[in-house]
Amino acid sequence: MRAPAATRPSRLMSSIDQAISIKYNNLVYELKATGHDIITLSLGEAFFDIPAPDFSGFDVAELHHYSHSRGVPELRRRLAKYYEDRFGPSVDPDQEMIITAGSKAAIYMTLLAVLEPGDEVIMTEPFWLSYPAHVRLCRGEPVMVAHQESLFDLERHITARTRVIIINNPNNPTGKVYTAAELDHLHALATRHGLLLLVDEAYNEFVAPGTAFVSAAVGDPERLHTVTVNSMSKNFGISGWRIGYLIAHRRIVDEVLKLNQHLVTCAPTILAGYLAGHFDELISRTRPQIQQAVAMRATAAGWLADAGIDTLPGEATFYLFGSLGESSLNSDAFATRLLRERGVCVVPGIAYGESCDRHIRISVGTESPERTRRGIAAIRSLIDATRT
Ligand code: PLP
After folding, report:
1. Measured in angstroms, how far is the CA atom of residue 203 from the centroid of ligand 1?
2. What are phi and psi of 175, to 5 degrees?
3. How many A from CA of 77 to the centre of ligand 1?
4. Tens digits of per-residue pLDDT, 213-243?
5. Residue among 172, 245, 318, 366 whose CB has most ligand 1 atoms within 8 A, to mutate
6. Aminotransferase class I/classII large domain location, by residue (predicted)?
7. 172 in ligand 1 pocket by Cβ < 6 Å?
């Protein structure tokens, strides 16, 4: 049946695809609902044992309503302190921060606040898969840089239209942590060319002891060109609560504030209020579990190596970006067959850029070690079954 003409989407929306990772996860939900046992190595989060929220004792009248559209002040203050304690530079929670309904919204609203149509945004592959869609939704042009290229050669992609460089540190899907030298280079490029450096630090706690993580805020304490985006989704194990935040120069925060006011008003007040009151308790519950997830990643990296499956360099998060080696399949065909024939779900590398079509993302955040190991064996066996 033909769709009614009045429901036709805009050209802009027609150019946007569904998020591939969510598409695969929806397939998993459907297969599980029909009784299939799926080893799920595709989810973008780690599952933690944390208490169900208890709202008794809170001022209910306040928590049921809109909050300040910069976000509940107590949570902003607590987040600013967290940043200062962890990374050094001080943050003004009243001028330089806004709490958003997830960091996805923070990234999109930042881009909307600064991009003119046709402006270019440089992103290195593998990028987090929503960045290109966010840029296109702002009528900008994503400029994707193949993963084989050195970060130190990024300058050759800068044109008169370049406005933003966006990176994800630590990186989803490789687990790479940017070195201080790499960050210094990016800050220097931003300064030299008048660009905004948008750094997504959603996984900043998922770093093994001994690995140095440097927040981008450190290299630009006055926030002249750096926007730092973060989230409570991953570090606090509460992705469904939709609490993210950004730290930036007040000039940018003021523009994002207008967008927030017109689009969502504020992040969920009751949840932000709860988090302000339980911040320390929650992070002390999740930190040891985060370290278990990072350790599980290291174990899984060993299993992949033993199975002869190469991964792109990385040591943080709970993701591994595994090579398809000698398989003749592209990453989408491989992931589809792995799911349909072997009951294992991963995310195809093509979601993270053209240069990543010989890879798949393997997430070890939710399955048991035994099932993860079986999943890796299934990947190996499908590579063998589809050799060129
Ligand atoms: N940034 C990265 C790198 C992510 O992997 C995700 C979610 O998977 C997000 C941002 C979005 O997180 P949220 O909107 O839940 O804060």
Report:
1. 9
2. 85, 5
3. 22
4. 999 999 999 999 999 999 999 999 999 999 9
5. 172
6. 62-379
7. yes
Ligand 1 in contact with 204 (CB < 6 A)?
Answer: no
Residue identifier of the C-alpha nearest atom 12 of ligand 1? 103
Cα three-residue angle 41-46-51, rounded to 5 degrees: 140
Of 24, 103, 361, best ligand 1 pocket probe by most atoms within 8 Å of the beta carbon: 103
Task: In whole angstroms, give the CA distance from residue 122 to residue 293.
Answer: 30
pLDDT tens digit sequence for 341-352: 999 999 999 999
Q: Is 200 in the pocket of ligand 1 (CB under 6 A)?
A: yes
Q: Where does residue 152 rank: exposed (0-12), middle (13-18), buried (19+ CB within 10 A)?
A: exposed
Q: Which domains occur in the chain, in start order?
A: 5-49+286-385 (3.90.1150.10), 60-282 (3.40.640.10)
Residue 246 CA to ligand 1 center (angstroms) comes to: 13
Whole-number average pLDDT of the chain: 95
Using the atom order of ligand 1, give the atom closest to the CA of residue 128. Answer: 3
pLDDT at 1 over 80: no
Alpha carbon distance 218, 227 (integer Å) = 11
